[in-house]
Amino acid sequence: MSICHFSFLGYAENYRQIQQELPLLEAQPWTEHVNRRDYQGEWDVLPLRCAAEHQYAHGILQSFTRTDAEDWVDLAVLELAPALKHFLASWPCPVKAARLMRLQPQAVIKPHRDHGLCLEQGEARLHLCLQSNPLLHFYVAGQRVPMQEGQIWYINADQTHSVENLGAGSRINLVLDCVVTPWLKEQVCATAE
Question: Out of 14, 125, 144, 165, which residue is the most buried by the measure of CB atoms under 10 Å away?
Answer without folding.
Answer: 165
